[in-house]
# Entry
Amino acid sequence: MLKKVVKILFNTILLVVFSGAAFWFVQGEALKKEYNDFRKCSVPVLLYHAVGEPVEIEWPPSLIMPASLFETHLRYLNQEGYKVVSVEDLVKLLQTGASLENVVAIIFDDGYKNNHSDALPLLKKYNAKASFYIVNRDIGKTVYMDKAMLLDLLDSGMELGSHTINHAPLALIDPKYLPWETGSAKKFLEKILDGYQLKGIAYPNGGYNDKVLGAVKHYGFTYGLTGKVGVNTHQTFAEAPYEMYRISIVDDGNGVHGLRNRMERAYLWGFLQTKGIDLNIIRDWLI
Ligand SMILES: [Zn+2]
# Structure
């Protein structure tokens, strides 16, 4: 009798374990497929700052990407079949509903001179486009690009955008300065660039609020880049064109794996956002 009970119990346990395993296997496969499908219609925006030799001690070392590592990144994206575009080109794809498969955008904040001397030749070599967000007050200063360099970027098919007049953290400043830091920044930079029309703004330090969103829309920007980690899809852009996602790419000592991990994080966080989970709430502790 006891032997029979033990046998039934054992079989029940086996059934439960196997059913559970089968359930997780099926669910896991379905989830994996859903994730892979999601990746095909979402675009990470990779944020760089300076590229080249760490000659300026005031720069945090992590913001300086050695040119050789930047080239390794471009080669990796090339090998993986990615098309590297500017955000302006990405926005066209997002607005027209075109395919986003294997698309990635590269951006540079702050307008460092070595974006022109070191990054531009590599971008050209790998047939890549990028967007550069410029701080008006810094144009022509020692480590920043001057007018001729900015015009050369445009001649090379790159995009220029605004990063405000004073690198102002827009969500923290007195709102009365928002017209100056967004609208005037756009107007002045367009004048310097002989009438080139700016479409985008990258919020300094990534911060923004409703007043900031109202100002950038009012002054004619087409899109805005936040500091939030995630990816850009037709849906996220249609819902919030002034709250685009990006991920910071730094030299974290892991070579090309650092890029791969960060891109994976952007895709994963974007996917979780579609499930109602936004890890940006605790981003500062996680990154
Ligand atoms: Zn910046």
